[in-house]
Amino acid sequence: MRSRFESHGLWLRVPPLRFHGGIACHGGTTDIEPLAEHPMSAVVTVSERKARETERLRKAAASIVAELTGYAAAHHGRYLVFGSVATGAIRPDSDFDVVVDFPEDAERAAIAEVETVCAKYGVPADVHSIGTSGPSFLKRISGHWRELK
Predict the structure, then answer these.
(1) Phi, psi dihedral angles at 52 (to 5 degrees)
(2) Global pTM value
(3) Cα–Cα distance, 129 to 137 (Å, whole number)
(4) Within this chain, do residues 37 and 67 fall inside the same structural domain, yes or no?
(5) What's the number of domains the chain is made of?
(6) What contacts 42, CB < 8 A, 6 or more positions away?
(7) pLDDT 10s digits, 30-73
(8) Same domain assignment for residues 119 and 135
(9) Mean pLDDT throughout 5-30?
């Protein structure tokens, strides 16, 4: 008999349950059978998953920055990237924080470009327009952003 741990995609061999003197035993013994087919090295720890996701986000952010830099240059605007991407302190739960600074007639398309590129790389986007951002917000992030133009 086999049992499957759906969330991890692992298979576990479970011998038929037998009763000996009122005690439930697998295969007539209380010993646990080792999983020779799936050694512990196949198990991914939480810290390994976080490290992998951080590395994926780091590579994705670099690609997003490259694409948005090209877009900004071609459309005469700029993106102000701030937060963990700008500082290099990317974590597994990081998003792409950006302020869009484009001429009014090009702003909507510039925002859509951020959302499209971030979605392409599977990175959540936190997009702000410079025209609707308050002065206290802009003051707080000024000097902590990376300008793409």
Answers:
(1) -65, -45
(2) 0.72
(3) 11
(4) no
(5) 2
(6) 10
(7) 454 454 555 556 788 999 999 999 999 999 999 999 999 999 99
(8) yes
(9) 49
